[in-house]
Amino acid sequence: xxxxxxxxxxxxxxxxxxxxxxxxxxxxxxxxxxxxxxxxxxxxxxxxxxxxxxxxxxxxxxxxxxxxxxxxxxxxxxxxxx
Length: 82
Description:
By secondary structure, this protein is mainly alpha-helical. It has helices at residues 17-24, 30-61, 66-81.
């Protein structure tokens, strides 16, 4: 399998001997399986960080009155028509 993310590098993981024996007893491509898990976890954490940053921005920005938003929309539309 060629990685969709680029060149493959080695990463080591230590597991107990008993777990290694279990891993050898089943027909699973562990490298492919772990790559998928790691990619999924990385993307979930990136999304979680993005949500946290957006929440912080929203908090700092505060609430804007609807009237102010409508005013900005009207001003933008009138500039577009000119």
